[in-house]
Amino acid sequence: MSASETITHDIIIVGAGLAGTWAAMTAGEEKLDIAVLSKVHPLRSHSGAAQGGIAAVLNNVRPVEGTGPRGPLEPIPPGGEAVDSLDLHMFDTIKGSDWLGDQDAIEILVREAPEIVYAYEHMGCVFSRLPDGRIAQRRFGGHSVPRANYSADYTGHVLLHTIHEQALRRGVKFYSEWYCMDLIIEENVCRGIIALEILTGRLYTMRAKAVMFGTGGYGRAYKITSNALANTGDGVAISYNAGVPLMDMEFVQFHPTGLYQKGILMTEACRGEGGYLVNSEGERFMERYAPEKMELAPRDLVSRAEQTEIDKGRGIGPDSQGLHLDMRHLGEQKICERLPQVRDLAMKFAGVDMIDAPVPIQPTAHYSMGGIPANSNGQVIADTNGTPVVGFYAAGECACISVHGANRLGTNSLLGASVFGRRAGRTMAEFVKNGAELPPLHDDPAKHNQARIKHLMDGNPGSNNHESVSQIAEELKATMTQGCGIFRDEERLANALRKVKELQERYKSARIMDKSGRFNTDLLEAIETDHLLTFSEVIVASGMARTESRGAHYRTDYPKRDDENWLKHTMAHKEEDEPKLSYKSVNIDWEKFPPQERKY
Amino acid sequence: MANRSFQGNSATIRVQRFNPDVDEKAYFDEFSIHLEPGTTILDALREIKSEQDGSLTYRRSCRHAICGSCAMNINGKNMLACNQPLKDHLDRRGRITIRPLPYQPIIKDLVVDRSVFWEQYQRVKPWLIPPQDVPEKEFRMSPEEVEALKDAEKCIMCGACYASCQVIGLNRRYIGPHALLKAFQKILDPRDSVPGERLAEVAGDDGVFRCHTIFNCIDACPKELNPTQAIETLRKLAQKRQAFEAMRRERQKSLIVSTPTRTAEPSGD
Fold this sequence. Notes:
The complex is a heterodimer of chains A (about 600) and B (about 270).
Chain A: E1 5-14, H1 18-28, E2 34-38, E3 54-55, E4 61-63, E5 73-75, H2 86-96, H3 103-122, E6 137-138, E7 148-149, H4 155-169, E8 173-176, E9 178-186, E10 189-197, E11 202-213, H5 234-241, E12 246-247, E13 252-259, H6 269-272, E14 276-278, H7 286-289, H8 299-311, E15 323-326, H9 332-338, H10 340-350, E16 359-368, E17 372-373, E18 379-381, E19 388-394, E20 399-400, H11 412-433, H12 447-457, E21 467-468, H13 469-483, H14 490-507, E22 510-511, H15 521-545, H16 563-566, E23 568-573, E24 580-585
Parallel strand pairs in A: 1-2, 1-11, 2-8, 11-19, 17-20, 21-22
Antiparallel strand pairs in A: 3-7, 4-5, 6-7, 9-10, 10-11, 12-23, 13-16, 14-15, 15-16, 18-19, 23-24
Chain B: E1 10-17, E2 27-34, H1 41-51, E3 71-74, E4 77-80, E5 95-99, E6 106-108, E7 111-112, H2 115-123, H3 143-147, H4 166-170, H5 177-188, H6 195-202, H7 216-220, H8 227-238, H9 241-253
Parallel strand pairs in B: 1-5
Antiparallel strand pairs in B: 1-2, 3-4, 3-5, 6-7
Helix pairs in contact in B: 2-5, 5-6, 5-8, 6-9
């Protein structure tokens, strides 16, 4: 194969969701040459699937006095006392993170939140409104005050469309349906990426002074997930392969309410608007697990509660692996006004109208707290000392700063992607304007990837001991679900690790049927599966090493949180046989927000 | 014709195939899959791709009708593949016919070239153009004004409407129901300060007056939106452009409300 063609830009951003688009727009204000790659059309990005809301201290609503923690909300009148504060949002996030979140970064998150939400609104984002025209807010899990700013139950969708529209206005150049296959880092300097133009199958070497990943999460490593089929953690795996460490990978969030057997997201706002979780005995079981917050405890807690109920035989459904989300008492009007999308989803995918019947749900792999370690300016770091990887940046779900620590609160992800995407854009623009040079490339970096593609096409699945990629992917998902799910222990993790390594080995004999260059999604899915195998190993290995329970990582053999030994971030570097683990300290304001017992 | 009483346990999926690099023209492939309750059309495609023919090509991502990737033509009608139960679209003999969206060049199998669709979307300037003065907090857009958008903001740009429109079939320059719905959303938004310009654009040669009220767009929309009604509204407004502009200028005066200082101002320290 001939050497690939080279394309050069000042800045290349991979991922056109909220993080990537904010970065592009912000850096774009400096009139630099910026390109955004996305393996799907930008409007198909998974940011658009977020439902419940984006958190910010706006102080638009308050609970009606005397009506309790599930009572109605009312607008705060002009001149009325504020009920929310940045400190409160910060504390809620820190507690939600089980004290693994870096508090300096969280301070930035909550401080920039109101400005980001107003920015979206000024850009034309359609929000649900109070009678006086202010943005409506609702309750959400783990937040002690209603601060989820929402647009019915499709908040991510409106935010994504709004920011994409604005990016078009600014003339941002999108490479739509271009897939980043590899990252070029030499001597700790990022030099560019290798991209596959999906339409033609051609490989391009893309050089830039700065590269940013906003490539999203990796839920597709699991069988039941809320994530799109496209969420295969490519950015995370590619970075790891290029020598960049991954941080806190063991922290995988399971969202309590995915549709039974499908995993499709039923927003936490169902519970925020008053929905109940009920077991097969008709009991509102959260009373026993989080007596104060009940269904609005943070997600890791609720998912564990659900799984416990299921494991104890109180599940519903043909295989008793589900539970009920009961929305009936909300009434038709409220459901149709505030939760139209999820009502439709329950009808289409579960055959149930939540107005008349409880919806069958189960925990679903939802969010990746871990990822590419970056500081709050979006700069990717290479080690526990914070050494920057020159010219490489990350923001959004693929990054780990960490603001979400061991468990993320709902509505903080749309916020985090926006805030830190914007900051990364600013940082990259400064870097380029301060005279960053285009780093040189040595020999043809696309060669390795051309070989990868050739290898996958050399033969057919099912003949000559060649395996099918989908078979390997299925087994991986089953392994991760079984061995590295909500409840983990040494034995199950060890088995999972063994199995992942076996699958990595078997992958070498996997082949694809489609040999064409044109729009080859068979090839795409094969490479995505390779990436799933890569980072799954890191998740399991990190989980095996962490002998404590914190946030979303729960060890039945080490059920307690152990601050003395484990108040630190896991960092995993790629090495020959297994990831090399090291640990990074957490930024904590010991006076203001010292670690406490985490009860809800 | 779809017949819901098909009782068999295997379905025959007829899919149109075409790779312009190797095929002279499009042809049909037939696949047989085991029918499970709850199988969607997308599930069937995925099963075929992973177990029978890896070269079967289609777009998909979210699989729950929010990303807009998987619009295609099922038994002659455009819809999303991911939220349609397969059994609802099987005929008496358990067959379904899947083709790519019409009126657009085929890239491969069920993947079409959407360039013109996206160009028309950009043509209506889908971004809000707010007034010069921007408030410290949010513009005071009322719940009624949000209602007046008639859910237009829910559009996922899937293209089912566009590819159902016979005007598009005859006239590729027609802006199209998707872009006109987006234009409607921006024109009706009180925060947009150029409704007059927008109305002038959509009232031009390729815009709202080309619609023949065929209503295919409404039938096709997976979000139950109503581009025809939006186009109707724009036609009326286009004829009262200056009055509408004046009304908007007036409205924008009260969009910004200064907020009195509250007690206990939230602060960062």
